[in-house]
Amino acid sequence: MVRVTIVDDVTVIATESLSKRFPRVTALDRLSVDVGPGVTGLVGANGAGKSTLIKILLGLSPATEGRAEVLGLDVATKGAAIRERVGYMPEHDCLPPDVSATEFVVHMARMSGLPPTAARERTADTLRHVGLYEERYRPIGGYSTGMKQRVKLAQALVHDPQLVFLDEPTNGLDPVGRDEMLGLIRRIHTDFGISVLVTSHLLGELERTCDHVVVVDGGKLLRSSSTTDFTQTTTTLAIEVTDTDEHPDGTRSVRDALHARGVSTEDGSGLPGAGHVLLLTAQGEETYDLVRDVIADLGLGLVRMEQRRHHISEVFKNGDENGDMNNDGHNGGQRKEAVGHDS
Amino acid sequence: MTAEQSLRTPATASGDTRIHNIGYRSYDGPRLGRSYARLSLYSQSLRGSYGLGRSVKSKVLPMLLFVVMCVPAAIMVAVAVTAKAKDLPVDYTRYAIIMQAVISLYVASQAPQSVSRDLRFKTVPLYFSRPIETADYVRAKFAALASALFILTAAPLLVLYIGALLAKLDFTDQTKGFAQGLVSVALLSLLFAGIGLVVASVTPRRGFGIAAVIAVLTISYGAVSTLQAIADAQSSGDSIAWIGLFSPITLIDGVQSAFLGASSVFPGGIGPSNGEGVVYVLFSLGLIAACYGLLVRRYKKVGL
Fold it and tell me: Are A2 and B58 an interchain contact pair (Cβ–Cβ within 8 Å)?
């Protein structure tokens, strides 16, 4: 049963020229951003002010200037009420090794105000939802990084919050663990009806998971836009095909065919499997169809077609090129590394 | 065709009877808020101080110390009952003073486990991202360790009291002594818990915490009793009482010999006078309050 989000049209997080200055650094500089329900990515390099923002939003650290609201509650005065309705997963390790996941999460549920029976039931439910089964009775000390991340996530969700802050949840995970965690984050919203603010320094992984991405740099808002804007204009596709007797060099055949259709490509030098990988910019749905049709016409097998991950630095580079640091995300298409449709 | 269908039917049937994932259920029940969370933290910490809800290994030391605390009391009772003594061999108020090494060891082992663990494994941010505030956390931890110490120090007194009643010693006399003893160990529990927690909360390393607590308790007592002995030898009796202010155990000794009818273990057996005793009480209460204030300050800094 998916809960109906009552705050559908309301902003979940709203900040207004929010600043936080420490004696030596300015962590946040007049940040104004509105975040709606759904999964929102907060991207920034290390030290960009992501964690500071979360602390302020939890009502734990007063802002130097400006104001912020979470779920319609002012962070300066309603901190406790916010923390009752919000979950938080820290970036760092936070689990004692000598207790089991069940004991730990039950304790944390009670710390959130759940009565003992409810705490136990919710713990069993939540641990199952994050994918911990029999191992939940063993001490946490013996868990893998991926399992620990799941326990951290479970303790943030156990009291059924309306919003969760996830600080670098994919840190330290291998690619498979990363994908699983991102899938789980997506489900937090789609299946559980809980809004998510997730931070990362990798734009690419957030593009695939989030409805909306906010990019901060040096405490300033660099860009805030929905990911459909992002992906339509910036997705680079990597394609790898098989060779057949008819087309001994499949990659070359595809490239020629695509060129004939007016799509230019690059060879993926620098990527693993260089020489067998083609890069092209997806301009939308039709590019995927075109690639599929071209490959099918040639009778080749498609080994993989995947979105290449962008790094945050590319956004910065892009922003600098456009000379517009506070753009609204619609002009991210002028990327230099991949070549688009000619027409 | 029919065979194919009949083959397919059981398959779909078993598919229908499969137990499905019931999906996410939201929670609409009560949220009991800050005071409940504080109480939960208190009971979890109190249980933890005796290793309950923790591994078998962590039960050994606190339970052992508890037994060590109670055994001498049981022996005294046995002696008093069999020898038909007119009084217990040791006063209620004296017992904790005699057993101070055991109490110190208990504080040294359990104060770090109560607070250093949360610091070391960085669990503290998880508490403060919930409704409870810094002061709630400190109060819960402080109250839990003080209660654990009270259990440790009051249990042998209870053994003595029951034994005294079994030995048919004077009821009013024994009840009064027992009550005085309880007041004294209550004050001792608060004081030792405060000092232990302040010292332990400085370091996330449990080993350092244990060593530091033992050092603070024994060095202060050693220094104070040495100075008192020197003062006694130089027959400057006045200063003995004032020196006693500077170690927790002599502080308790002073308070109880001034107001709780205890005989002092100070050199020469002279405890503080009533006037000095007031200073002792104020000093003890002030020290407890200072420990609480330092802890709150410490955790304000830890934050997230």
Answer: no
